[in-house]
Amino acid sequence: MNAPLATVTFSLDGRDVTALPGETIFDAARREGVTLPHLCHRPEPGYRPDGNCRACMVEIDGERVLAPSCTRKPTPGMAVRTASPRAQTARRLVMELLVADQPPRAEAHDAEAPLWRFAEAMGVTESRFPRRAPPPPDLSHPAMAVSLDACIACGLCVRACREVQVNDVIGMGFRGAHHAPVFDLDDPMGASTCVACGECVQACPTGALMPKSLVDAAQAGARAADAVVRSVCPFCGVGCQVDFEVRDGRIAWVEGAPGPANENRLCVKGRFGFDYVASPERLTVPLMRREGAPKTLGVDPANPWTHFRRATWDEALDVAAGGLSRVAAAQGGRAVAGFGSAKCSNEEAYLFQKLIRTAFGHNNVDHCTRLCHASSVAALMEGIGSGAVTAPFNDALAADAIIVIGANPTENHPVAATYFKQAAKRGAKLIVIDPRGTALKRFATHMLQFKSGSDVALIDAMMHVIVTEGLVDRSFVAARTEGYAALEAHLGGCSPETMSPICGVAPEAIRAAARDFARAERGMIFWGMGVSQHTHGTDNARCLISLAMLTGNVGRPGTGLHPLRGQNNVQGASDAGLIPMVLPDYARVGDEAQRRRFEALWGAPLDPEPGLTVTEITDAIARGAIRGMYVMGENPAMSDPDLAHARGALAKLDCLVVQDIFLTETAMLADVILPATAWPEKTGTVTNTNRQIQMGRPAVKPPGEAREDWRITVEIAKRLGLAWTYAHPREVFAEMARAMPSLAHIAWERVEREGAVTYPADAPDRPGRAIVFDDRFPTADGRARLVPALYRPSAETPDADYPFVLTTGRQLEHWHTGAMTRRAPVLDALEPEATASLHPFALRRLGLAAGDLATVTTRRGAITLRVRADEACGETMVFVPFAYVEAAANLLTNPALDPDGKIPEFKVAAARVERAGDRRR
Amino acid sequence: MGTRFHPKGRALDHEALAEVEATLGAAPLRRDLLIEHLHALQDRFGHLAARHLRALAERLRVGQAEVFEVASFYHHFDVVKEGEAAPPPLTIRVCDSLSCALAGGEALAADLEGRVDPGEARVQRVPCVGRCAGAPVAVVGWKPVERATAEAALAAARAGEVRCPVPPPALAAYRAAGGYALLARVRSGALPIESVIATLSDAGLRGLGGAGFPAGRKWASVGSFPGPRYLTVNADEGEPGTFKDRWWLERDPHRMLEGMLIAAHAVEAERCFVYLRDEYPGLLAALRREVEALVAAGLVALGFVEVRRGAGAYICGEESAMLESIEGKRGLPRQRPPYIAEAGLFGRPTLNHNVETLIWVRDIVEKGPAWFASQGVNGAKGLRSWSVSGRVKNAGVIVAPAGITAHDLIARAGGMADGHRLKAFLPGGASGGILPARLADLPLDFGTLAAHGAFVGSHAVIVLSDADDVAAAARNLMRFFAHESCGQCTPCRSGTEKALALMAAPRWDAPLLEELATVMADASICGLGQAAPNPMLSVLRWFPQEAGR
After folding, report:
1. A661-671, pLDDT tens digit by residue?
2. What pLDDT, in 10s, does the model give residues A455-474?
3. Considering only CB atoms, which chain B residues are within 8 Å of A93?
4. Is A866 in contact with B3 (Cβ distance < 8 A)?
5. What's the pTM value of the predicted model, to 2 decimals?
6. Chain A interface mutation, best of B62, B69, B315, B520, highest count of A Cβ atoms under 10 Å
7. Nearest 5°: phi and psi at B389?
């Protein structure tokens, strides 16, 4: 019953105007320059007009009552009067009714709220109506203040929570004058299931919901900023655009901005996690290790002076470069390795890899992509010739079926998850495949809660169903792939009945999910670390690629393969060549023509041998083969598997140069520490999981003497004898654009102007291609390779001594190793302490109660922490987030590697859980 | 806020989950049945415990807030949070709407409050329970006690008489008297549906829930939109002073059901939903039983007719709010357009009728349109069921011509109660305004009272006498509207609350109240807010001295 897709000509205040298809009177009037007051209506993407506040009423000739312009669509010939006395009286009196119950503007929670601005514009400053008794505020949440005396029951917070973010926490409780937002069962916000995305705060038109940081003890405040800086969120790969709202030289609060990936949405980290920037623990001056100070982790980041002394920039840079040079001179260039960072800009990643490759003559440069999607990229490069996503995650809204496997996007890619949840609510079949019953389970058509590490068995069984039941997209397979016969032969032995005992999912459940996915007109597959962080991570991804190919689900809207990238710039850092096997744009170092091209561009010989990966470098240090390291913004002393080994290795280095914004665990082991700028302090581009290159802009000044990473890298390079002259990231980007075909038609100025540009782009004035591979894959023959994968168990499986599966990951509030987020007071307040999550039945079996201290032990180490009862876990699973240094999960993890991706098996380790102090041996 | 040792929010209590599952039994875990599920829990446990709501949300796979907003919207649910006391086992509801108030309802409530053991029972003042002819009314548990005294109510409580009487089975007698023959003729095609529609139009049958929309036109309109379509019956009779639908359903349920099935056939409805107010539990049991009997008799398919239970919300008598409620949501009226004929229940074209409208279908077709049309007087067409209460001798339902005057109706009700002289009357329940005695000779029909700021609505006539304070009556009605406002739109939510506060003044601020009334009428989403100022305006217009003017 949709309105016909035609324009409508109607009369607006006596003149003929034309409404575009689907436009309401409000929309058309606004386009014509008549902005009606609006409170319950938020004319932003994702917000359905509701027409309840009645502040935008207009008069329509021939109608008995007035009409809300925000919901009413014009019809041909309709005569609308926005300025009739009747309409104006209604709008003004409605405002007066609402103002009656507000605290006085001088005491308002948000004196700049839309309510006050519209009231002022209408001349309503006070009310003739009596004020109702104000309810007390709810200050239970660390991030947000709830003051319902200012609430006008417009329900924008409910739409924000339920329709835009799909968190389903807020409802409108009660009735009549008591009608008001409630959290869960009318619980205090801080005790509710609220995930603090803050969408409700962003939407609230009155200040009833406010960032706590903006109101004083009496809950008075205003959303008033001195400057607004459009940038990108520094946390995950979703790449949400943000507006840093700056007041008095500090970020006062953050609003979601209309980026292509997030459409104004943010999560708790992006909205409330910005204050790490202002942490008193920021590194503000270069530091040198004190003579004789031991290389241990026990340094207080707030007081580094026990182990370090202040240095000038010149001294620190000289010592850093000199130390690395000396190692190279003594042991050869190969004795120096570098870890760049997916947290830095594209330009910084590019410079870093160029520095290692050209100054030291080898490829021993890597970054955390190794710990993240290295296996996915290996499989994708092999299968379809490209490691990036084939379609943006937002396309989930166009899909009929969506697989989310080995990913917990509501915690790790929260804004992407909002699109999956919206898609499911609109009727798409959502197939969630995960050993944990993640929050997406509630939205899932099929929840396949399978045994950790049995991905290949399960996906093979699904493909078996598709093949044997005639659900293969034959024409796609014939036209676009090679290797089908071998895959079919392999799948013959993978019936659901055969695979069910391995993966723990009933055959019928496997069949039902496989059928729903195969029968969908458009299907997408999303995956995360749960797929990649295995010794068979590449095989896992191969299966997913095959599944997409068998069902013809690449290259069209609503179809595609999408590994959800983790770090904000892991896509860009990888594209920039921060990988030991490849140069920028994945040019193989062994490919002579490619290497020649870069040698010409860089004016330096390049090593044709692939370099060492993250964990291989750690091993090489332990062996004594690597003696010097330059680490920019990475924290291997927390993020590597088997940390005791990794930390021991780092402490052995002759020269460790660490460039970071905090005294990370890695920095504690450094010889020289170079203070860098945080993301909101610098200029640069980043590339998100959707292949969207976005512009980061500085909002605040760096603290003390801290400098942008690229500037520091340039200074180091100069001291290593490289003739670098870069004076601005745009110069670096220009060089990258010359080196990287993927950046064709994408100039720095374009990114600056458009805010976000998707690569590849066909022309400087045409949008980039969001969906790729509609007719061929970038492989030699244009076809995708179907690579069968045979189930192999994880490197370590539970046994009598270690009966649990330990799996590690992140949690919503904490980013990676916690360096930033544990210094963000709101995030730290929400998740202040490491916990091990176990199923309540498992806890009962172990004689533990939620909150008890337990020791989790693997063959590599033990940590002691309190337990959380969480039914999302299977009954033989223990989940530990790896952000907490005091109970570092990676002391336990298994460094066994995937043979292709060289990624460690973070997701499966055999573990024992017992009450702390009850060690049996 | 300290470390959490559970996921965010209230933890799932497995014992509560088991209790919820046991209570719901085999009921489908459909979102649209949320209100039915809440009833099951409220009936079983006497309240809705937070841990049960949490478990119910888990089972329905919805957020807790979605459950809470529905549970807290309807007055017949008692949400009890952790650490709060559950309500006592027995609830005595005392009607505080106008007819009962005139008959001493407030004194009755106060008397009861002083006499019940708070551990055993609680006394609630509730809006009209649809038994105005027996005012004052107390409902003990589900047992209505008419012309109630505290003694009578307490005696019922002590005796454990807390069930509502259920009318006896009616299908056999109805069929014996020729019932469902017409349905058979319509279904067989012997009587073309076009001719039924023409007959209803010729007879002048109008919607008798209050709006008066021509029934035949409605059938034709709904049928013109592509299916699937639904049919709903609005038996949520909540307009204070109105009890005719209960009266009909207690006496002749199949007359309504046959009308409904003919209408369903006319619009090729996929299913029919009868939405019955929760104040009529005896009827609920009877209707469900009669529908089962129809299934057993092969007259309707299993599942074709569903009887849904309201939960204490006047607003659900508004047709789009009722649809929301049938969908298991809060009863928030929808914006129009689209009209429900085009996009109604579950977004599908929906034919909605009031009980009485359907009651007349059979008679009209069997006796002919001329017969029905000729029943009206003073230019009106047809028969109407008038709910007459207040200061008359014999309050009750009076089936009388459309267009009858208040004087004639009072006469048919045995005249004024002894010692009372007509001062004013409400022609259409709480919403229809208040008219002075000197207008008691106006014909009562749709549209005839508009010039006087009144309407006939659900044909509930409440008679006030010289013993009554009209301003107090208007306050009673405004309090009702404030209590029953869904809260969705500002003019109604805030307007009723502010109006009530302003009407407490000895001298009403007439200009402000009139301005407010204009905006409520112009800018409220639905009829509740639009009509709520009517009694207040009536006082200012006809009885200004009572407002201190």
Report:
1. 999 999 999 99
2. 999 999 999 999 999 999 99
3. 491, 515-516, 519
4. yes
5. 0.97
6. B69
7. -150, 180
